[in-house]
Each structure stands twice: as C-alpha cells, then as structure tokens.
Amino acid sequence: MSDTTGNCCCGNCSLTEAQIIEELEPMLQEYASKPGGVIPALQIAQTRLGYLPEEVIKRIAHLFGKPYSEVAGVVTFYSFFSTVPRGTYLIRVCLGTACYVRGGNELLQALKHKLGIDVGETTADRLFSLGVGRCFGACGMAPVLMVNDDLHQRVKATKVGEILESYRAQAATQAEKEAVKA
Amino acid sequence: MIQVTINGAPVSVKPETTILQAARQAGITIPTLCFLEKNDPLGACRVCMVEVEGAKTLMAACATPCADKMVIHTNTRRVRQARKQVVELLLSEHDGNCQLCDRSEDCELRNLAADLGVRDITYQGAKAAPLMDTSTPALTRDNSKCIKCRRCVTVCSSVQGIGALFPQGRGFSTVIGPAFTRKLDGVACVQCGQCAAVCPVGAISEHSAIEDVWRMLDDKTKTVVVQTAPAIRAALGEAFGLPPGTRVTGKMVSALRQLGFHAVFDTNFTADLTILEEGTELLTRLKTALVEEKKVALPMFTSCSPGWIKFAEYYYPQFLPNLSTCKSPQQMFGALAKTYYAKKIDRKPEEMVVVSVMPCTAKKFESQRPEMNASGVRDVDYVLTTRELARMIREAGIDFNALPDGEMDSPLGLSSGAADIFANTGGVMEAALRTAYEIVTGRELPVDNLHVKAIEGLEGVKEAALTIKGTVPEWSFLEGVELRVAVSHGLGNTRRLLERIKNGEATYHFVEVMTCPGGCIGGGGQPRFTDDSVRLKRIAGIYAEDEGKKLRKSHQNQQVLDLYAQFLGTPLGHTSHELLHTHYTERKTD
Question: Is the pLDDT of residue B281 over 60?
Fold first, then answer.
C-alpha cells in the first residue's frame, strides 16, 4: 500500500493511509454487527480514503465473515465504489436516459479528451478522477455532471474546459492557504 | 397439504413446495439451468417460466411457492415462447462453438436449445469476453461460455463454505470468478471441482491431461501404468448411456488395456494399504494417549481427500497435526509403482509413467505438490478424471458397452471390498473399523454384513460409537474404551463439524472427511450431472461391488501382505515412512 498523505476527504489533514485505516477500524466493527452493513462500511471507508484499497476490502470481508470474492463483487457492482486512488475532484458525468439523450456522452468524451484519462482513472497530478453516474435525480436540468458534491447543470461539451479551470484555481488557492499556515 | 392444478391434473403438495418441486413430483419436466437441489432458488436463468392463472406475468417455477388452489400451466404457447426467447438470449452471448467444446456431449444449454426447438438466434450482439483461467492444475474456466447461472457460486459458498467465486461487475460485463476477476491460483480455492460438476455448460471443466497421456502412450521408451480410483467404476458407465451405479470394473480394465497401458492397476490396492498404515497410526496415537499418557493430536482425521487437505491447510491449520500423515491412496500408488513395481520389471523410476483415473479434480493438484516425489521423480505424472477417460475411450473408437470383463494386473491390482467403499462417504471409516476392530480383538467387526449403518447415507455429519471388548493382550489397554468416530462430507458440513470439535462441543477419536457431497462418487471429475438420486445409485453400486467380493477386509489382501513381506517391512516402518507418509503446509487465505 502506498504511504501517501492527504487522502482524507477533508483534503487538508495529513494522516497516512495506514493511520486512516486504523481510525476506521472501530466504525467498521460497529457495522459488522448490523445486517446489511457491508455497503455502508464500504461507503465510510471510501469517503475517508478516497478509494477502497485491497487491504480495506479484505478487512471488511474478514470483519463481516464474508468471502473476499463476495465483498469484491459488491465493490465492482456499484459504479460509486473505486479501487484506484481518486483525485481531489471526482467528476461524475450522468449517463442516465435524460442526460444521455441531451448530450451526456459528448460531455464525457470532451472530459476524457481534456483530462487525457478514461473512465475510472485519475490524472497524474491526482487532481481529477473521471466516472459515470446513472441518474442523479436532476433530469430536468440534463445534461448534468457532478464534481464532488457540486452539481453542474445544462453543461455544454464546449464548456467543460472552464469547469476544470475553476477547480484548478480552487485547488491552487487551497494549496496557497496551506503553505501560509505551514 | 396444498392443492394445486398443473396442466389440468390435481397435485397435492406440502406447504412451501415450489412450483418446480410440485411439477417434478407430478412427473412434469420444467427445464432449469440454475436450480440446485437443497439450495435456495436463485431465479437467475429464467428458463423455468410457467403460467399461473391470475398472475400478470410468467413466474419462475423454481422461486415461486405453491399456493392453495393455484392453477399452473407449464405447456402453453406463451410459456414455450418465453423459454425459447430466454435460451436465444443466452445463446446470443454464449461462445457457441459446440463442436469444439468438451462439454458438447452433455451440455445442458445445448440440450435445452434442442428440446425447445431453437433453430435461429434472433438477437445478434456482443459476446461475453473470452477470459480464460488455466492457472490451476485442476480446473479451467472460460468466461466466454459462462451463462451466469451462478450454480458454481452457490456450490462454492453454500455447499463447500469457501466462496472463491462470486459475480464481479454488473450487467453484460459481469464475470463469475474470484475477487476482481483474479485467477483461481491466487485465491483460497481447494480445487475440488464441485463448480465444474454443477456447471450446466462448458465454462468450468477439468484441466485436461488427455493429450499428455496420449503422448506418453506413444512414447516407446516409457512404461505407462494406470491406476483407477474406487469411485469411477460405479460412474464411468454413465458416459456410455448406462444407468448411474452400473458396475463397469471389468469393462474399464479392458478399455484401459486397449488404450495401450502396459499394466492396469488399482488404487483400491493402495486403499487397502492405507487402511493398514492409517489404522496402525490411529492405534499408535491411541496408545500414546492412553498408555503413555502423552499429549497426542486427537481426533485423527483421514487424509485421502486432497480438497480437504488443502481446506485444512487454508482454514484450519491448528488441525494439521491431527491429519493422518498417510498419503492418499493415489500418491501411495505412485510412490510404489515407481519403486517396488519398477524394480520388479527392471525399470528405473524415470522410465515409468504413472497415470491415475480419478473422480476428482483436486487429485490433479495433489499429484503436483512438490513433496510428492518419494521415488526421486514425480510419483504420479498425470491425472485423468472419469470424464476424461470416457473421452479417450470414445476417441479411440472403443465400443465400451461391448467390451468383455478384464482383470486387474498383479502385483498392485488386488483389492478388498473395504477398498471399494473408499468411494463413498463413511466408507473409509467402515473399512478402517473392519480392520482395526479385528486387529484389536481378533474377532470380526460385530455388525450386520460388516456395514456400520450409522455412518452410511447422505446425512451431512454422521457419528458412531463402538465399545471395544475382548481385546487381545497386545491391545488390552483399549479394553472397554468407547471408540467415537465421525464422518463428514462436503466442506460446509466439515466446517460445522470442525467448529464443534474446536469449541469442545464434540470429541472423537477418528474422523473421516471427504471433500465432495457423497464422497468420491460425487467428485468434481465424475460424469455430469450428479444429484442425490445419482449419488445414492452410485453408492449402492459400490456397496454391491464390496458385497460381491470374498475378500472384504484390507488386512486380508494377500498382495498387500506380500508387499510388506518383500518390500515395506511393517506398517509405519522406515520404508513406509519414506514412501507412504507426508506432511502438510499452512496456507494463507485472503
């Protein structure tokens, strides 16, 4: 496992992955006693780590007394879960029916081109990850995409560059703040 | 009782009976590609659709319980069309090169398509990805043939309690396999092949050794001998249209001779030998515990079943000292064929080739374990399953059913009825008791016709207790001892038994474990398809084989006694230790 820092969802603490996993343990154990606890446990782990490392999936399988293949089956079933480290910003393009017919796929292609990555991948600077969603419940505003928790509506393929730039700027400002604090 | 009507005829069924079960009870066939008896229905394949009056949609018969006064139709235009459509959809994704598939003779999908009169596949589109897994010596998996019925998932998790396989991903791109579609050799799979045994198509099969065996048979510098496991003689006939349980020992010997093997021997011979070695080991352990009052690992577990060995190595390493150190009969045979027999015919171990015919896929793994080279070279070179032998017989153009009965060769061919019953659950234990009791008391095991009824049959875990009375002087320390034994088959049952032993809820002296439900007669390499009715017929065939012999106790096998006199010395002696015993290795799970 990599010993990278700053994987936590808050984006500004400097715990190592190993430390985060250690912190997660009591929470995961609590879920292990609940029926249907696997998915929430995976969600919590992913929220804290940004992705689901193999070690964590195995740990969850062990705690829940389930085969590793079964928990991996859950992880691979839901597009929400990722087993590769995610960037600071997760971009999810909706490919639900409404968004698809209104150009969702064109948005996705434009993003792939701009970022130079495919779905499920992360940019080399670990700023952006690309994913697809199947309906965010905002069909009236199709096509939509989400960047972390921000919803962008009626997006045009030609405008995706601007959206990316705004997050690059945000990240830069954040980094400056960190530097000043330090 | 619940009253239903199926195709106009009244049927009376118990509550919670499914439509599929009710129809079977009434002698009506409803096809299914995913159902496995004694397991929860999945409703995954959708070919068991039936029409229920009053229901808006067709119902999956396997997953729909009967309700009182339900009126069911299994043969309407709507039902036939729906089933046909489902099969067409399955075929549209399936790699349909039937003529090149080793499953072609008994593929359930192919047969169903024929039964339903599918003549055209209306739907054209992408095929399942051709992911091949040939990573283990035992099994091959071909995703392009998989129809996602999940029988393998059910058998691996629910029956065997392992869970190596699960659907990965979703929708069209779903792949059934280990976590993140890793290969089988990277996970805690015991290679029992029960997944292959239940696969309706050719997606999971044994890793074939047929070509290797043909090559060896053609090699004039090699002496190629074959050994045949007890369980195949009551199942091989199924591949040639004979009913399950038909005893074909003699025909099998003739067929093997016609295939070109230099000598046809019997794993039964080393099954008898196992009883002498393992029985002595048990009595020695009991002596250590009762007379010397030293700590010794009890209960002792049988060690003939390689899937069970690997299971213990993965999941219950604390019990490894409890496993009998005896190699399985297959490996004992290999070691003896390349030493004792090779010497008799003036050949070197490396000039010998030992082929096994086994009902088992895990035996392929076992033969490749690095420690299995007591003769200086690999003791067993190639392992064929019962299915592979049948294919070779067909390939050679042999009319199996017309063959005369042949006799096994000497000196590794004679066997007792006790060796035959190694084939089924409870058999090794019964064979051991027949010999151990007689050694200790000088009298025959005092049960009807030498059968220990309490440990026969398909109950998951069986127990028996036997008080030893009237011992001969040498074994007087066993006088009055109540010998407690247990028998389990199927690794899920075994796990439950082991947990009870671990928690001190049950204590035994001797435990027989067989990996597959029913024992070897239900092995992963046997003709398909095996359900309980087939298991019971094969078991009946095996007991008939046992009862048909004059020689029914391992310690009376003259060829085994000759082996000790000429070569081995005594059970657990030095040569035995070198050739017939082994050790185990703890393995890491995920």
Answer: yes
